[in-house]
Amino acid sequence: MENPQGKRVVVIGAGIVGASLAYHLAQKGAQVSLVEAHEIASGVTATSFAWLHATHPGPDPIAQLRGAAIQEYHRLQTQLPGLQIQWTGALSYDGSPPASTNRVSRAQILELEPNLKQPPDYATYVAEEGALDAVAATHALVAGAQAHGAKLLTQTPVLGFVTEGQQVTGVETSRGIIHADIVVLAAGTGTARLTDMLHVSLPITASPSIFIRYKPQPKLVHTLISNPHMEVRQNADGALLAAEDYLGDAEENRADAIALRTAKAIDHELNGLACLEPELACVGLRPIAADGIPIIGYLPQVAGVYVCTMHPGVALAAVVGRLASEEMLEDKPAEALGGCRPGRFFRG
């Protein structure tokens, strides 16, 4: 096994995925440089609803990863006191009969969410799920990485790569060249642009979604509620957060218009609301591979480049950060990442 001490790793992208990678790599002894074109958590991380969930409808090719996600966040909380997570549980219903597992009755629903105007007869409640402030969590991970010696370079676009034959040996940035033994691409939707610089094409699309933050309210939502009319939770500061599907670029489907419609839907569902005013309504661009499965692992054509792009990025950041760092520094291939390899797009 190669000693990770002194191994130089450049992580490109300071969203929550890149920050988790930087933290876990630095914790294991690597010399980490975290490079970000803008500021910490300035991309899709800032527009994430940040639901930490282990459940998924239908067949799930990343069930093993998703199943470990919550436990890994509990581990991180013991290591990073600044990482605040609201373990409220998640209450879901859509009109169809829920599975017997985690099913709760109408009376139990009202105990969990007494402000619901029209509680269903049954719902699913997963007590171990929760949510976090994705921006604050990213800053906590970056601070943890820096405490282990990682260097942070914000406002530093990547201009190209330094190569020797088929081996990438560094990154050319607006501040100069950073030499590396491994370069990690964790730039969300920008990852495809970076691989294009290496003449490698990865089918990553930018999948839009709507994120809404409403001004603080009295404590109204105690869990995370997901139903056909709204997906909403309440932050520790009282702000209501909502997630909505992107419906196109027509005037009536702009983020601010959807925020107003969603406010009406929330008011229809909950008692006790004051005037629900949006503080923020925006479109976030989630990086999703053509087959919907995360892309995690070494590029097959170019040595020294490890790709890490995925949805749901927030939910999987902790577990993938640990497993990927073990692969890079300890030569421990992770079975849970086996179906996520970039090489699946280049077979034949």
Mean pLDDT: 95
**Helix- and strand-based class?**
alpha+beta
Largest sheet: 8 strands, mixed
For the record, give the distance between the C-alpha atoms at the N and C termini, rounded to a whole number.
31 Å
Q: Helix content range of the residues, please?
A: 25-40%
CATH superfamily of the largest domain: FAD/NAD(P)-binding domain
Shape: elongated
Number of domain modules? 2
Q: In what range is the share of β-strand residues?
A: 25-35%
CATH fold label of the largest domain = FAD/NAD(P)-binding domain
- Give me the Rg, rounded: 21 Å
In CATH terms, what is the architecture of the largest domain? 3-Layer(bba) Sandwich
CATH domain class of the largest domain: Alpha Beta
Low-confidence regions: none
Order of helices and strands: EHEEHEEEHEEHEEEEEHEEEEHEEEH
Count of alpha and pi helical runs: 7
What does this structure look like?
By secondary structure, the protein is of the alpha+beta class. It folds into 2 domains: 186 residues, FAD/NAD(P)-binding domain (3-Layer(bba) Sandwich), CATH 3.50.50.60; 121 residues, D-Amino Acid Oxidase, subunit A, domain 2 (D-Amino Acid Oxidase, Chain A, domain 2). The longest helix is centred in the last third of the chain and has 18 residues.
